[in-house]
Amino acid sequence: MLSLPYRLPVFFELLVIFPFALAEPVDLPIIQEKGTRHIEVDGRGRYTETIERVSRIMNEFGANRLGRHTISHKSSQQTLKVVDARVTLPNGKVIPLAKDWIKYRRGGEDDRRSFGDEESTVIVFPHVVVGSRLYSKHVLHHFKAGTPGEFSYKLNLSPHMAFEDMQTTLRVPKSLKLLVNHRGYEGGVVHETARHVTYQFRVRQMQAHKHEENAVDFEDFAPFLIFTQAPDYLDIGRQYLRSSAPKVRITPEIRQMAQSLTKDAQSEEDKAKALYYWVSENIRYISTVVDDGGLVPRDAASIFSQRFGDCKDHVVVLEAMLRAVGIESTAALVNMGEAFDLPKGPAANSPLNHVINYIPSMDLYLDSTAQLLPFGRLDERLLDKPTVLVALNRLGHTPKMRATS
After folding, report:
1. Do 307 and 329 belong to one domain?
2. 231: cis peptide before it, omega within 30°?
3. Which residue, 57, 64, 31, 60, is CA-closest to 132?
4. Residues in contact with 86: Cβ distance below 8 Å, sequence separation at least 6, in sequence order
5. Among residues 200, 229, 258, which one ends one of the domains?
6. Torsion angle of alpha carbons 124, 130, 132, 135, nearest 10°?
7. Is this prediction's pTM over 0.85?
8. Is the CB of residue 135 less than 8 Å from the CB of residue 54?
C-alpha cells in the first residue's frame, strides 16, 4: 500500500474508525471535551505540533476500557515528548502525571508483509471513573518533511466521535505560499506579519453516529482541514512523479528479461499480459515504510534484483519492463477502500493510498500486487474510483463493476 508521508492527525485513538454512513445517533463512552493543536512550520516544510486534549469519561465502558491517550510517531522523521498529563476526578481532585503512566510500544513488523518505524506512546491514566477528565499535552517535532521542500497537513474529523471544542492554529512563513481547504471547519487568517501568517480554525460536533458496515468512507463527506502547497490533485501527482520517475531505469537485466518473456507475443496486449504475470508472480509483496519509503519507491534495479516490493515498487518495475518492449505506462494514484471522491481545490495525499499501473494505449489498469486476479481485472475495492495519472498530468477513472458469466 501507499503509506502517506504526512499523518492523518487524531486527537483520540477512536477517531479513525472505518467506513461509515450517517446512521442513528449513539451514546459514546468518551467525549472529546477540548482539543487544541498549535503547529509551527519552518521554511523547509518541517514543523512542530503542540497538542493538548481533554477527554471526559461518560460511562462504565469508557472507564474500564478507554482510560488512556495513545500517540504515534515515525521515529525516522519525528520525535515525541509528553509534557504533561493529569486526571481530574468528579469530586475535583487532581492527580498529576507520574512517570509510570507512560508506556511504549515499538514499531516495526506488523503483519509479516510490512515493515515500518512507527512507534506508539500510551499514557495510561489511574483512578479513572465515570465523570473523570483525562488531560494530556505532548510535542511532536517533524524534523524531516514528508516530501522534501513540501508541506502538507490534513485533519479528518470522524463522525463517530463527539467534539465539544476543537481548535487548530498554524503559523507558517509566507515563503511557503500555503493553500487552505476545509469542510465543516470555521476560521481563516487571524494574524499576519511581514514574514509569517497565522491561521486558526475551530470545529464543534456534538452528535456522534453509529458505524455501519459497507458504507462509504467518511472522508467523502465528513469535516476536514487541509494545509498544503498543492493547488489540486494533479499537483499531488506531479510531486509523486518527481520522486518516482528517476526510479524507472531500464537495466540490461530488466531489458533482457522483458524481451525474453515477450519474444513470442503477437500483440502489445500479449506483451503486457506476459510482463504483468511475471511481476505478479515473482515480485512478492513486502512494504517498507521506514523514513520516506511510505511515498518514494525504490529503484527498478533493486526491486528486480531482490524480488520484493510494495505497490509503488511493483509499479516501477512493471513500468520499466513495459518500456523495455516499447509500451509506455504511468503510475496511477488511487484509493483502495471506500472513498470515491477527490475534493476540489487544494489537496493533500489522502484519500489516495495505493498506486497501480495504467497503459494509455490500451486504456488498461493493472495491479500486479493482486496476485490472484487475472490480467485486466482489478480488486473490487479499486473499481469506479478517480485516479491521478501522474505521467499524463490528468485525472482518470477505473472501470465500474460489471456482471460476468
Report:
1. yes
2. no
3. 57
4. 94, 95, 96, 97, 135
5. 229
6. 50
7. yes
8. yes
pLDDT(4) > 80: no
CA dist., res. 6 & res. 10, Å (int): 12
d(CA 352, CA 3): 9
13 pLDDT above the threshold of 60: no
Flag whether pLDDT at 369 surpasses 90.
Answer: yes
Q: Is the residue at 17 inside a domain?
A: no
In this prediction, residue 154 carries a pLDDT of 95
Half-sphere exposure of 100 (CA within 13 A, CB side): 1
Q: How many domains in the chain?
A: 2
Alpha-carbon distance of 314 to 280, in angstroms, equals: 8
Q: Scanning the structure block, which residue is given the C-alpha cell 523514513?
A: 291
Which residues lie closer than 8 Å to 55 by C-beta, 6 or more apart? 12, 30, 31, 32, 33, 66, 69, 133, 134
Averaged over 316-323, what is the pLDDT?
98
C-alpha cell at 142: 517533524
Whether residue 258 has pLDDT greater than 50: yes
Q: Name the DSSP letter for residue 209.
A: B
Residue count (the chain): 405
Is 68 in contact with 53 (CB distance < 8 Å)?
no
**Residue among 52, 119, 38 at smallest CA distance from 79:** 119
pLDDT averaged over every residue in the chain: 89
Q: Which amino acid is at 113?
A: R
Indicate the residue type of 266: Q
Average pLDDT over residues 232-243: 95
Cα–Cα distance measured from residue 371 to residue 272, given in angstroms and rounded to the nearest whole number: 15
Assign residue 217 the CATH number of its domain. 2.60.40.3140
Distance separating alpha carbons of residues 7 and 85, to the nearest angstrom: 23
Sheet holding 179-183, edge to edge: 152-156, 224-228, 179-183
Q: Which domain holds residue 281?
A: 239-397
For the record, the C-alpha cell of 84 comes out as 504533561
